[in-house]
Amino acid sequence: MKLISCEKLEKSMVELQFSIDADTFKAAVNTAFKREGKKYSVPGFRKGKAPRAMMEKMYGADIFHYDAINDLFPENYEAAVKEANIEVVGRPEPEVVSMNETDGAVLKVKVAVKPEITLGDYAGLNVTKKVKTADEAAVDAEIKRMQDRNGRLLTREGKAENGDTVDIDFEGFVDGKAFEGGKAEHYSLVLGSGSFIPGFEDQVVGHAAGEEFDVNVKFPEQYQAEELAGKDATFKIKLHEVKYKELPALDDDFAKDVSEYDTLDELKDSIRKGIQANLDRQADQQVENDLIEQVVNGMQGEIPQAMYDARVDELVQDFQYRIAQQGLKLEQYLQYMGMTMDQFKAQFAEQAEKQVKMRLAMEAIVAKEGIEASDEEFENEVKRIADAYKMDVDKVKSIVDEKAVKADLAVNKAIDFVKEKANVTEEAEEAKKED
């Protein structure tokens, strides 16, 4: 391979031109003939048994040339990229300039490269930290959730009330005909939860176990099943059982039963500290986000679309992996959601753009400030990963790319650098009260 030229184009694109010598190209053509020639038929010869000259006469002199180019391209392209000393971030767009066995081949390749970033201000930035204090309403709300989780379901002898859990059979009819998906047996429903069509649960209230009755409702105009949207429906109900929840008293015994604490006040204090710690983390994260946004807004550089596209693909792969853990394929998910792959990818576009810009900005700071991750920090990160996934440390080391891990750690250190150099003003803000 001989690098002929490396020309910078607009929007962080580069055009490489390189040549492959005649001997290398000729050998690759001969190899392609031996492999691909079996596919071609020539009259008077068994398939794949005709001389190469006969195949080329019948199908064209360059019949095996493009196969040779495909075989030679990856290795020679990588060598050209290395010699040009560029960092590619997208898929190459190759073009054959010329090719023959006398002179060899000349290839032209356009490819997106990592952009040159010019930083604005990143040290001494001003930011306001919204400081929130946990209020008693949030503490009480959490206590009530714990009380509800630890309640006992008891059989109600009388009529069902809002908040009760009922066991019902139901079958729905529109215009006197049963519709698909409108039937179930021994369905457990919490009255007042809003799980069913508006009006359904209200009409179950007031009935007792053993009763059979009708519920008349109207499907919402925007109902997901279009054939039912806006239609009047009748559900035939059989009520098997009604249960109500008996909540435990909120006292010291409750605290002992549901936690490691001896008194209700100690439990509340623990909850209060937990809420406060979470509020503090949120405030710190918002400060970090605001600072990163300032750095990104101040930087300049032509970021190629290929970087955004690559990040979208990574986010899609992450999502695909997560749902695969639940036994669901991405194709099934898209079908269930009624989305095309392009529509699905579009959901990640904004997130991908922010992440790419943040990464480029922080990498520019890493380079400018000479920030590095130490061997000790790498070892600590490997141990963290091993602990998180319950893996052996040596196994993790054999899987991860040390250079990539250290690059990630350096980016995190750059974020810390920006935060340490920032001028942070604290401002008290009332925490949102829980419903």
Low-confidence stretches: none
CATH class of the largest domain: Mainly Alpha
Looking at how many chains there are and whether they match, the oligomeric state comes to single chain
Name the helicity range: 40-55%
Rg, alpha carbons: 34 Å
Which architecture of the largest domain would the CATH scheme give at its second level? Orthogonal Bundle
| Strand fraction | 15-25%
Listing every helix as H and every strand as E from the N terminus to the C terminus, the arrangement reads: EEHHHEEEHEEEHEEHHHHHHHHHE
Helix/strand/pairing class, anyone?
Answer: alpha+beta
Number of domains: 3
Task: Measure the end-to-end span.
Answer: 69 Å
Mean pLDDT: 94
Q: What fold name goes in the CATH topology slot of the largest domain?
A: Trigger factor, domain 2
Structure overview:
By secondary structure, the protein is of the alpha+beta class. It has helices at residues 22-36, 52-59, 65-84, 136-149, 200-204, 252-258, 264-298, 305-324, 330-337, 341-346, 349-369, 375-388, 393-399, 402-421, and strands at residues 2-8, 13-20, 93-100, 104-112, 126-133, 152-155, 165-174, 177-190, 212-218, 232-246, 423-430. It has three domains: 2-112, Alpha-Beta Plaits, CATH 3.30.70; 152-246, Chitinase A, domain 3, CATH 3.10.50.40; 257-430, Trigger factor, domain 2 (Orthogonal Bundle). It is built from 14 helices and eleven strands.
